[in-house]
Design brief:
about 400 residues, mainly beta, Beta-galactosidase, Chain A, domain 5, nine-stranded antiparallel β-sheet, about 5% helix, about 45% strand, binds calcium ion
Length: about 400
Amino acid sequence: MNFLLNKALSVVSVLALVVSFSSAEARPGNPVCPTGQTITSTLSTGSTWSMCWEARDKEGIVLSNIRYAAPGQALRRVMGEMSLSQIQRNYDDGSPVRFLVTSSGLGGNNFIRLTSSECSGGQLRNSGGKPVLCQSQKDAGIIYKRGTSAGVSGVDLSLLSASQIGEYSYTVEWLFKENGTIQPKVGLSGSLDKTGTNASFGWPIQQNGEVGIGFVDNYFWRMDFDLGSNSSNDVIEQITSSLNADRTKRSKSISTITSETGRNFSPEVKRFWRVRDGSETNGFAPISYELVMLNYDHQTTGSNNEVWMNKDIYLTKYNACERFAADNSVANGCGWGVNSYTNGEAINSGDVVLWNRISYHHLPRDEDDNVIGMRWNTFKLLPRDWHAVNPL
Ligand SMILES: [Ca+2]
Ligand SMILES: [Ca+2]
Ligand SMILES: [Ca+2]
Ligand SMILES: [Ca+2]
């Protein structure tokens, strides 16, 4: 009787949440997606991905309740919600900073209508009657190979959308791999929107001396990891592998991050971070996901003394109003961006959000005249001890 009453109350409270928050702020707590917003895909080895998708005016495509199952295993939640939460544009000539996600938005009218030929073999998903998302499977090549036996190959689940913001286009593609890896990518294309005459700030692209002005795009990804069945017991660890004084050995150390902070990657000590569950295991070790930096050769702190640009990642306690990494609405007492979200709250065994920034400096080439070939920027989320053996 108590159980039934509790269930009834929890259903009522879920309904109340759905009613009381706008869709942009709703916390996915219920694994049932709104009608038509479910994505499930079984890959060639038998791995399965399941999630909800939503088209928002600002962030474009937002994914929630992302769950993964290795072949023959049960679905386990990885992420509560994931979004491209800001694109910050800084021009090399010192022109004013732009926040493209909040000032223009990747969604709404800025979504580019996708055609069936752009989604060959896949399925187009509509928002407001417009095809904005292509769900498909793509050849991912060899997953592993050993000795002379045939290698094992697989496919990726690909979710792709494209947006036009002024002269530039941004293509966002999420890859979900057989082994549980998530790889979000942003592709810059379109046309240069700023030209000048001073080659110090760019690159000549016309015989008359016209210069394409360089710029840095910073892609901020917001990842509300919610590992396993409990979203409030996740732990962040920092792992380093440091050379000893005579540079003959490399020693690993692990530290738990107990309160909100911003951190920087370090190739020298191989510093990285993982989110691990506080209780669930693979039967032996705690399940976790690690952040794998890629394209770090372009990472930069940016101009204008922007303090939030001094860190690569931020780790914060979940707060529904903390939606954009920068230029967030400060109505209702919410912070402006990641630096203000990072205000000392405890995150040890809690509901954590990981913010990752990837910089890309575009120094124009003559080939950008008059369309820029796609430039991709990406990183990976890699399972660490999600399985006790290679699940494939
Ligand atoms: Ca030219
Ligand atoms: Ca958890
Ligand atoms: Ca905080
Ligand atoms: Ca979380």
